[in-house]
Amino acid sequence: MSTPSAEGRGASLAGRLTRAGVTDVGRAERMLSDAALLDVLPDAAAVLPSPLADVADPDQALLTLAKLAGAVLSQPAEHALLRDILEHDDERRARLLAVAGASVALGDTLVAHPANLHVLADDAPALGVPVADVRAELLRAVGADPGAAVPVAALGGRDGTDAMRRAYRTRLLRIAAADLTSRDPLSRLPGVAAALADLAGAALEAALAVARADLDDHGAGVRLAVIGMGKGGARELNYVSDVDVVYVAEPVDGIDESEALAVGARLAAGLARVCSTSSGEPALWPVDAALRPEGKDGPLVRTLASHKAYYERWAKTWEFQALLKARPLAGDAALGEEYVATTQPFVWAAVQRDHFVEDSQAMRRRVEQHVPAAEADRQLKLGVGGLRDVEFTVQLLQLVHGRADDSIRSSSTLTALAALAAGGYVGREHAAQLAVCYRLLRVLEHRIQLYRMRRTHLMPTAEADLRRLARSVGMRAEGPEGLVDRWRTVRRDVRRLHEELFYRPLLPATAQLSAEEASLAPDAARARLAAIGYRDPAGSMRHIAALTEGVSRRAAIQRQLLPVMLGWFADGPDPDGGLLAFRRLSEELGATHWYLKLLRDSGTVAQRLARVLSTSRYVADALTRSPESVTWLGQDSELEPRTHARLSAEADAILTRAHERVPAVTALRGLRRRELARTAAADVLDVVTGIRASQSLTVAADVVLAGALRVAQWEARQARLLDEDPTRMLIVAMGRLGGREVGYSSDADVLFVHDPLPGVDAVLAQEFALSVATEIRSLLGAVGPEPVLAVDADLRPEGRNGPLVRTFDSYAEYYARWSSPWESQALLRARPVAGDAELADRFVELIAPLRYPAGGIDQSTVREVRRIKARVESERLPRGVDPARHLKLGRGGISDVEWTVQLLQLLHAHDVPDLRTTGTLDALIAAARADLVDAEDARVLADAWLLASRLRDANVLWTGRQEGAHADVLPHDRQALAGVARVMGYPAGSAGELEEDYLRTARRARAVVERVFYG
After folding, report:
1. Angle value at C-alpha 826, between 824 and 830, nearest 5 degrees
2. CA–CA separation, 445 vs 459, rounded Å?
3. What's the mean pLDDT in 361-368?
4. How confident is the model at residue 46 (pLDDT cuts 50, 70, 90)?
5. Chain center to CA of 556
6. Is 113 exposed, middle or buried (0-12, 13-18, 19+ CB in 10 A)?
7. For residue 128, which of 200, 201, 203, 190 has the smallest C-alpha distance?
8. Distance of alpha carbon 79 from alpha carbon 395, whole angstroms
9. Residue 806 DSSP code
10. For residues 350 and 312, is the Cβ–Cβ distance under 8 A?
């Protein structure tokens, strides 16, 4: 027996009602003093306020109780039962108040049929009831025998219709009560949706029995099956929804087919009337047969053969997607199962139709576009981030992958989503998040529909409606604002996951494969590998087996990826190498949680990875050494060059933490290796190419040289027990490093300069500086786990015969007395890169008159420069190499262009400030602007220099080899030339085109060189 609490005795009634959530306290007080209610429950004001706090709408619950109390006045049994329910604080009262506070419509049903109080009072199960039991319950309600092969109702017409509807609402009340009293409505949702679908199926069965009763022969000449589609077929129905069906009919032996179809059509029409038209009891829901072949333009009822013929010849993509949910609901069960068995093969073969995935994606976009603008932000079902986003995503993944995996063929959205996660088709976290979001959206949809038992999918906007909705889903504390915030978050999450999963590039690519190819069946896979260009199909099959064997989640995801990636590897010039590199990378990273997930879920990573692995051995090796770099492939921003400031800060952090020189420099070399890999991947993917790639490589070299200088200076001080450096140090970049034109095979050409501090012993300063320079070359050039950066100081005064490092004064004296024209030319590239800033400025000032002489170099020097160039061409070109194919020293190659530009600088840079630059292209542009060279000639030279430079880099990217002379030669070998062409972005089969492009460009450049350089 329920008794008022101490709080109830001490607090005012208005206060207790307010705390319970009542909004119209005055009306509630009147309801509690209603004579009929007091007749049932004399201490209503003491008992009811507290339990009202748990219901969705306390005001509505009180109103319904008052009406119900009035309705049972003349019904002693129900009067006594209502009193008993309200007096006891148990599940019965919770069920009654939950229904009364959440649904005006079901409350009115109780008032109209107080006997239904017995439904709320008993503990009979509402969910998980066998389908046969629910079917029998509704058939008995219309006087039909549930055990009969063809049940016929004893009640026909209006009586049968109303009897079925009352039985339907009685069970619906039981389901709603169980739903509304759940402490975890999201977990209970699947059971509720299944119970509603089973109830709908039972209603269709009873309606068909009533329809038979209305025919003279009870439809004896036809076998009719009612196939559930949509949510009804999937056992995930709403409280109020169209029930989508398809009818299949077959004549009984001896009956003409046309006659049977006519009878079947009358039965189908009669079934719909029983469920949908006006009668003494409210209609249930529309029975919608629009998903049948030809839609509303097609016959209502067809034979199985007619259905099959339609799906074989005329069905559209969306119709196969709809068949995914097909399930017999009523009528001839054997015929229904035969229909499903006949149509399901069409479902799982549909993915092989042309543009299947694209059509499905377009259909989802059309659904969005047809949502009225006024409803777009309120749609739970059709709008952005709504239920359709989840359902379309799950169904597309099922249809693409389900042909080879029957474990994911469930018609239920949540069951299918769990199966997709178990099979590795969706990340477990994504699946869990999507499932929770879907459950919440469905629960909101249910609660909104329950209130007036109306079909709607719109979030309410009124404060009172939102408050009721929040309380009904367990968000009393959060209130309307919290509910709306949660809903909006769910919409964002659903849309994000939908876009990630629904638009995966893997899906259309997988759809284009045959079932055998998609399943990696050995014979089909081997034949496919040979057909698409793999040189060693047997070896490739061993790699595939190593990646896909077993029952692990890793193997399952690889079985999804590889059928598509094999084709992407074949789009590159070396598919065998790409697959081998992928295996090595996968074995390195396979145990990580993110790698395969990234490949499966990202919009670009898998395809980009296949491209770089099958195109560049250099990138393949780099990614194997730095596997985490795979993540860069997902966004262009990750492939963009890092700034000098950013890398310098990183280097500084490394050195600040370091305590030993070798690990510190190894870390610096690792930083450079990472940036080499980033730039190379961006180069192959055409994100960062040409001069931007060279500048990126230059920045990495600059930062490593500066860091190595710090380490070497520290080591030299420690060795000599010095507190400070006895001399200022400077590293001057020369050659391509000085011009910020570093390639993948470039050395670091430098000069070492030092300037002793005042009062320091000159011998100590020289010894210190030599130690630092030697240590830098050793640290960066030693063989180790990270790539070497060879530091070359051969451009110093006297070359290899001169001291490795000189004082500033020594440089000044040398350049004043003995400098040669070639040294002035070399100094055009001089760029201080590390060390003392003041010394750098002084050095730049020192060499300015040499590289930018007043009035330009004289004619004798011009002749000397030309003589040296001719000698280089004749003596330095490797023996046996075709001069037309040598990218650096050959005719029209890099050297031709650079010498021509440098001669213009030596002649005119003193008078044309823009020529005072270390970059070849910058100087060439400045020369053209100053009319020192014809604009067209400048373009020809620039094109030749850029193409030759890119080819040198492409040679390294293709072969993976940085050492040796191969990088400087346009390949003769057709396979190598084809690989280089693909690195350069040429389409497949363009090796000859690349060769012709280079030879033609170089010839044109050589003609300009002959005219401009040699005069």
Report:
1. 100
2. 8
3. 89
4. very high
5. 19
6. middle
7. 190
8. 51
9. E
10. no
Give the closest residue to 339 by CA, choosing from 303, 366, 384.
Answer: 303
Residue 456 CA to residue 446 CA, distance in Å, equals 9
Between the CA of residue 233 and those of 128, 284, 332, 350, what are the distances in Å? 17, 17, 16, 19
pLDDT band at 354 (very low <50, low <70, confident <90, very high): confident
- Chain segment 730-746, per-residue pLDDT in tens: 999 999 999 999 999 99
pLDDT at 151 over 80: yes
Comparing CA positions, the residue from 473, 489, 482 lying closest to residue 437 is 489
Residue 911 phi, psi (nearest 5): -95, -15
Using a 10 angstrom Cβ sphere, with 0-12 exposed, 13-18 middle and 19 or more buried, the burial of residue 904 is buried
Is residue 371 left, alpha or beta, with left meaning phi > 0 and alpha meaning psi from -120 to 50?
A: beta
197: left (phi over 0), alpha (psi -120 to 50) or beta: alpha
Which tokens belong to 80? 């006594």
Q: What is the pLDDT of residues 298-313, one digit of tens each?
A: 999 999 999 999 999 9
Q: Residue holding tokens 């995914």? A: 324
The DSSP-derived string for 228-242 is E-HHHHTT---SS--
Torsions phi, psi of 969, nearest 5? -125, 135
- Are 846 and 812 in contact by the 8 Å Cβ rule? The answer is yes
d(CA 431, CA 777): 54
Q: Encoding tokens for residue 380? A: 């739970």
pLDDT tens readout for residues 233-260: 999 999 999 999 999 999 999 899 999 9
Q: Which residues pair with 228 in a beta bridge?
A: 245, 327
CB crowding 596-628: b at 16 or more within 10 Å, else e = bbbbbbbeebbbbbbbbbbbbbbbbbbbbbbbe
Coil, strand or helix at 402: coil
Query: For residue 282, is it left (φ>0), alpha (ψ between -120 and 50) or beta?
Result: beta
With H, G, I as helix, E, B as strand and everything else as coil, classify residue 918. coil
The span from the CA of 217 to the CA of 657, in Å, is 94
Pair 538, 526: CB distance under 8 Å: yes
Structure tokens at 563: 């059928």
* Better-predicted residue by pLDDT, 473 or 509: 473
Per DSSP (E only), the strands in 772-817 are: 791-792, 805-807
